[in-house]
Amino acid sequence: MIGIVLAIASCSLYGMNPVFSVNAYDDGANSRGLMIARFLIAAPLLLAYRLVAVRGVKWPRGRDLLEIFLFGFVGFTFQSFFYFGAIERMASGLVSVIFYCFPIMAVLLAWWLLKHKPSSAIWVCLLLTVAGVGLTAGEVSGAETTGIALTLAGALTYTFYVVLSSRVMPRYDGITGLTIVLFGAMAGWLVLWAIRPFGMQVEFPDTNFGWANVAIIATFGTIVPMGTFFAAMKRVGPGPTSVASAFEPVVTIAAGTLLLDERLTGRSVIGATLVIAAVVLLALSEARRDVGSLTTASPGGAAHN
Question: Distance between terminal CA atoms of the chain?
Fold first, then answer.
């Protein structure tokens, strides 16, 4: 029971990130400034925690170290770039629902790269996901098509990150691997800030309230849910943790409705229900096949949004 509570707590904290990001945007930040500040705070904090809590464990070296760093430098950097950029442009609940097509993408990519053939249940999940995303995306206006494109790009980037990291991350304890990933993401964002590609603008919050929201995302939206994620994994394993992750878009939708005055139509609710049902069915199916680490409950998957 405690493990399930921890898993739900982890995905609930992740699910609240869009609310705090919108608050930061309202106080002058943009998604680029928010992410730079987030990782500048979160990476050193996780390193400090790792040095205290995970003693006597060796750091990865050589190629493994480089690969894990690149998962953050490329994968996590661009996933967060796309995801939080989408939240600037459309309702957070819609972003969360569309983003959650990534577990299906992960299974299909694992089939292609790692030769893990999907079961018949996976194809049912795929149909549910396509139908759900189609219904949800059909509700947005033409002005929000960029947001949809960014969300799908974020889901695809996260898919590659999860599948590729599943070959390296399990060799090391989760906190150690994620510490390197966060420093990779921090380095990636600092490089983007330095070179400003395509005239990229970086804006930080103008108020203390805005910075408070940044700090909340860096701590309670990054470090704390990572810790509760691994605590849940140790208690109940990857299967139940995967199922619990489907609760995240529910939290995002509820928080957006209650705190940000976002509104979902009946069509969007049906679409969200189909996507969440697909995620739960996928997690249960993959858990029975003992390959849940390739989808939503991998050590790499703890580095999320």
Answer: 26
| Spatial contact of 29 and 204, defined as CB atoms under 8 Å apart | yes
Overall average pLDDT of the 173-191 stretch: 94
* Confidence bin at 296 (pLDDT 50/70/90): very low
CA proximity to 185, closest of 148, 232, 222: 222
| Top mean-pLDDT range of 35-44, 192-201, 259-268 | 35-44
The ranges assigned to domains in the chain are: 2-302
pLDDT in tens, 252-261: 888 998 998 8
